[in-house]
Amino acid sequence: MQNRLTSIVLLLGLLAAVVYSVVTLDQSISSDRTDKADTRAFNLNGAGRADNRAIEYQAYEPVTSRPLQNTAKQDQELTPALPIVIQLKGIEVSAGAAKCLLESAGILGEFEVGDLLYDRPIQLLDILSNSVILGFENHTYEIVLSGPNLLEQALPQTHSELLGMPVDKIGNRPQIVEHFVQLTPTPFIADGMLASPGINPDLFAQAGLKEDDVITTINGKSVTLADEFEELQRTMRYADTLVITAMRKGRVITLYLDIPSEALTLKRQ
Length: 269
What we know:
The chain is α+β, with helices and mostly antiparallel strands. It folds into 3 domains: 1-61; 64-144, SH3 type barrels; 159-268, Pdz3 Domain (Roll), CATH 2.30.42.10. Helix content is 31%, strand content 29%.
């Protein structure tokens, strides 16, 4: 009997020792895993914070690019490209005033510092002697004058003299609206003018215009707003394309007349 009790006690002791060893080993493994997990979490969090700081710094770091007619001189990853291509056609700087002549998609416009360009969030920040500075999404872009300064060239003639130009002198390059179309107010459309052939009727036909068309805009300028129409008359002589929006039998049509070529495409909306 005593031998049996002794065997049971020894067996229980051995079992207790095995259990203790297993528990101790499991705690050691768990602790090691926790330490490694904490280390990985620290490394990941630390790296994440470093990346966030870098991204934030890059996003707000002032980056100045100097594209020539929007060619890619900037780092595309840091500085976004302008949403439209803008070309500088002329600069005029006088005492206390400056303006520039810009072109985008064949549409010319005169702009001053502070203006937004072509209904986009692109602002004209500065006008220099041979370039302009534009701002877009916290970045700056310098557009350089690459051709002749059209605003420095003396106007060849007054408006009255241009009205008296013969057809052969006008050719296929109209310098004022009247060279290709005569505009007459119409009571039917408040923001449009009735079209009829101008001094050179061939240009009217080449533009795809028909009598009784009602023109609303030319090169993005309203034909019924005096200030926009005056700007159109000043800048049309520099244009490479005339973009004409008109109403024809209740439908909107857009005509593109390349100057001085006679190429034309018609797009219906």
